[in-house]
């Protein structure tokens, strides 16, 4: 079985949880998109920082091209959103780092879907804050990463570590998702909360 299939099977529940939550967002409401960006930042920033500090660039030479922190910082600033990033995860092995990158790179496909949905509201202020969603368009980041993942000796020797790195990263995005889910619930009840006052 390919390593990507092993990860996909092991993290199926987490992936489904994120997909369902994101599909429930009404991107025509600014509060929803602001909540999405903040949640993404609170998980993405520490994960990318940990990967950089851990030397992932030794295994992915184009890592600096893949990093989305600056794009997301741009979008937060464009919408005057503050965030409280989670602590950096402790990736102990190369296999765990590759598992984390799997989650980050796979999320680009979801970003394309989000951008398409956002385009249905062209007058929204959110259209000025889509650098994160657009990052990597025209690049072969996903297939080129899979080439590295499937052929890397550390990943082949330690698939459990790869799965663990992916699980750690999924868990961080799920944790960041909780306040965003609260926004969805509050809108459904007919009242918009001030997202900036919500706990991270």
Describe this structure in words.
The N and C termini lie far apart (38 Å). This protein has a single domain (15-185), classed as Up-down Bundle (Heme Oxygenase, Chain A), CATH 1.20.910. By secondary structure, it is mostly helical. Mean pLDDT is 86; it is low at 184-200. 66% of the residues lie in helices and 0% in strands. The longest helix has 30 residues, at 159-188.
Q: Quick one: CATH class?
A: Mainly Alpha
Number of domains: 1
Terminal CA distance reads: 38 Å
Q: How many β strands by DSSP?
A: 0
Number of helices: 10
- What is the string of helix and strand elements? HHHHHHHHHH
Taken from the alpha-carbon principal axes, the silhouette is globular
Computed Rg: 17 Å
Helix coverage percent of residues?
A: 55-70%
Mean of residue pLDDT values: 86
Detail the poorly predicted runs: 184-200
- Give me the secondary-structure category: mainly alpha
Keywords:
200 residues, mainly alpha, Heme Oxygenase, Chain A, 10 helices, 66% helix, globular, disordered C terminus
């Amino acid at each position: 079985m390919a390593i990507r299939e092993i990860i996909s099977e092991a993290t199926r529940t987490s992936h489904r949880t994120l997909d369902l939550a994101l599909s429930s967002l009404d991107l025509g409401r600014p509060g929803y998109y602001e909540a999405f960006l903040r949640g993404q930042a609170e998980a993405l920033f520490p994960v990318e920082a940990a990967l950089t500090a851990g030397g992932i660039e030794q295994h992915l030479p184009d890592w600096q091209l893949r990093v989305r922190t600056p794009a997301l910082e741009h979008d937060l600033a464009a919408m005057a959103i503050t965030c409280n990033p989670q602590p950096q995860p402790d990736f102990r092995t190369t296999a765990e780092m590759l598992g984390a990158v799997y989650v980050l790179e796979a999320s680009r496909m979801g970003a394309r879907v989000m951008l398409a949905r956002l385009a249905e509201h062209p007058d929204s202020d959110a259209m000025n804050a889509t650098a994160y969603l657009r990052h990597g368009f025209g690049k072969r980041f996903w297939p080129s990463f899979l080439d590295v993942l499937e052929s890397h000796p550390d990943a082949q020797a330690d698939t459990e570590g790869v799965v663990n790195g992916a699980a750690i990263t999924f868990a961080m995005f799920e944790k960041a998702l909780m306040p965003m889910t609260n926004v969805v619930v509050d809108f459904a009840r007919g009242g918009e909360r001030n997202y900036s006052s919500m706990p991270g």
